Amino acid sequence: MKKAITVVVSAALILCLFAGCGGKSEGPKKVLNVYNWGEYIDKDLLEQFEEETGIKVNYKNYESNEQMYSVLKQGGVSYDVVIPSDYMVARMIDEDMLEPLNLDNIPSYSLINDKLKNPVYDPENKYSIPYMWGTVGIIYDPAKVGEVTSWGALFDKANAGQILMFDNSRDAMGIALKYLGHSPNTTDEAELNEAFELLKQQKSILQGYVMDQIFEKLESGEAAIGPYYAGDYLTMLENNPSLKFCIPEEGTNIFVDAMCILKGAQNKENAEAFINFMNSTEVSAKNSEFIGYTSPNVEVRDVLELSEDAKAVMYPSDEVLSKCEAFTNLPQKTLDYYDSIWIKLKS
Q1: Dist CA 284 CA 142 (whole Å)
Q2: How far is CA 3 from CA 14, 67, 172, 277, 291, in A?
Q3: For domain 11-133+256-314, which CATH number applies: 3.40.190.10, 3.30.160.390, 3.30.70.120, 3.90.1150.10?
Q4: pTM reported for the whole predicted model
Q5: Which residue in 28, 106, 156, 276 has the fewest CB atoms around it within 10 Å?
Q6: pLDDT of 76-114, one tens digit each?
Q7: Short-list 99, 133, 138, CA closest to 119
Q8: Are the C-beta atoms of residues 37 and 63 closer than 8 Å to each other?
Q9: What pLDDT is recorded for position 24?
C-alpha cells in the first residue's frame, strides 16, 4: 500500500474528466478508470499498458481505505478498478459493490502465491486478485528516540512532540489493541474502550495525526517516529538513511491490497486486462522494486534487483509473520463504534 502525497483535484474537475471517458472520441473499449493509493504504482507501467493495449488509463489516488469507501458511496464519479485492502474488500463484497471476475481473462492469476489465494476475505478469489502485500511497523530515527522494539515507543512521554500517528481509526485502534495484548479484530467493548483510552492519553504527546504527510515529516527530520507501511519505509530510506524500521515484538497488521472491479463498471474487460498485466512477472517485479511493496507473484522475489536488507523488509521471516494478524471486516455495530470514538478523539 504505497501511501504518499495524493494529488488533490476538485470534484468538478474529476466529474468533468470521467464524463468524457465514454465519449465518441475514444469509445468505452479504449478507456480504463483506476482508483488507487497515492504513489502506489510505477507510472511508467501505465504508459506501457497503454502502448501495448491501446487502452487509455485515467488514474486517480486516495489516502486510505476509509476515504476510498466514502468517495465511492457518495457516487458521482465512475471507476473501473479499485485497490482496497483485505478487510475493505470483504466489506465491499458484503455490500454488493464489486463485480465478479472472469479468471479466464486473468491468466497471471496462476502465478499468485498459493498462500494468498482463496483468502478469508474473498474465498475463491471471486471478486479480487492480490496486488501487493506487506506489514505495518514503526519507522524511526534511533539518534532521537533510541532503539525501538515495541509499540510502547508511540505512547512514551519521553518521545513527546516527535511522535506521529495514523490518521484513520482502524490502523490507530489496531496498534493500541496490539500493544494491549488484544486482537485488532476484537469486538469486545471493554477491550475497545481500553484502546480508546490509550489513544486519548497519547494525543497530548503527539506531533500530529498523519497519512501521506509522514513522508515529508520523517524524511526531513521534523518528526522522529511513527507507524507506517514497510514498503514506504524503503522509499523514505532513500531520502533519509538515518531511519530504521521494526516490526514490534507485540506483533502487527499484515495486509493484502487487492485489485477489484466495481459493480457495474463500464470497462470490465479492460479492467481484467489491466489486472492481468499488473501481475505478470516482469511488470510486477518492476512495480515492486519501484514502490517497495511485496508482489504476490511467486516468481518476483528471485528477479528483484534489490539489496538483501531491502528484501528482508519486504519478505519477513516466518517467525515474524507468526505474530502478524490481518484485519477482518468488523460487524456494523463495531464499525459504528469506531466512527464515534474517532470523532471524539479528533475533536
Answers
A1: 33
A2: 21, 12, 16, 22, 10
A3: 3.40.190.10
A4: 0.87
A5: 28
A6: 778 999 999 999 999 999 999 999 999 999 999 999 999
A7: 133
A8: yes
A9: 40
